């Protein structure tokens, strides 16, 4: 069911779609549905057939890889810069990733059939999404390096900056338990890292509510992966 607060086509904010030529963008949007994503809503589980793709606008979504011996690890955080359902770009109908809504808000939803038709009809859309896949593959390599070599505090600072970008706000919700899952560390590690950032007055964190107080300071606390990933996106897609 659509929400009255969901944005209409002339208010589009998804960057992948907004960069398309007007005719191509309108053709895609003609088959899209405006939906309101709810926090915690599960879009896909591993092994699911991908029935729809999503282009977030004021929402953002976590993609988590669930290894057998661990609760999971976030492999991607997608907001209005990207899309959910990328295997369909390559013609793959199933996903091996758990996908759930981290930040609630509006998104565009397009059926897998409609997405395939849009790709077939627009070579510009097809080329742009192939470039997007290239960005994701390179960012995945960077994430592996970051997870292996960088301290939890620096990784947390990076994640908070990424979330702030996608939430379009200095304030958002996330619990210690969820952060431990997303960063692939124990809860005590998250508590220690968050406390260190709070003591430096970079953030305020209480009962799952985060407020970024000093973005410049948070950028200094983050590992260099933050700026590198964003620069990569701008170079290929900006």
Automatic annotation (TrEMBL):
SUPFAM superfamilies reported in the protein's UniProt record: cAMP-binding domain-like, Winged helix' DNA-binding domain
Q: Which GO terms describe its cellular component?
A: cytosol
Name the UniProt key words of this record, in alphabetical order: DNA-binding, Transcription, Transcription regulation
Q: Where is the HTH crp-type domain?
A: 150-216
GO MF entry, a single one: DNA binding
Keyword Mitochondrion: yes or no?
no
Superkingdom of this entry's organism?
Answer: Bacteria
Protein name listed in UniProt: Putative transcriptional regulator, Crp/Fnr family
* Organism of provenance: Thiorhodococcus drewsii AZ1
